[in-house]
Amino acid sequence: MKAVEIYTQPRCGFCTAAVRLLTQKGAPVTEIDAARGSPRRAEMIQRANGRSSTPQIFIGDTHVGGCDDLFALQDAGKLDALLTS
Known about the structure:
Belongs to the glutaredoxin family. The chain is α+β, with helices and mostly antiparallel strands and about 80 residues long. The chain has one domain: Glutaredoxin. The protein is built from four helices and four strands, in the order E-H-E-H-E-E-H-H. Helix 1 (about 15-25) packs parallel to helix 3. The radius of gyration is 12 Å and the shape is globular.
């Protein structure tokens, strides 16, 4: 299974939902604290091509996007393939 990096911030319900889904799938999730003003937030924005909302999710080298994008992949039946390919 591919490693997942997810940029999150405290008290973010979307971050919690995304981590929960990925954990249920058995994905190895690394959370990166991207709280406003942190150096990791600038890193996230650069990696996510300017997107500044959290979470920002990366599966392997693929930028998935945010929570809605992750759940759209799940609903379309494409998340499992992305995690295992």
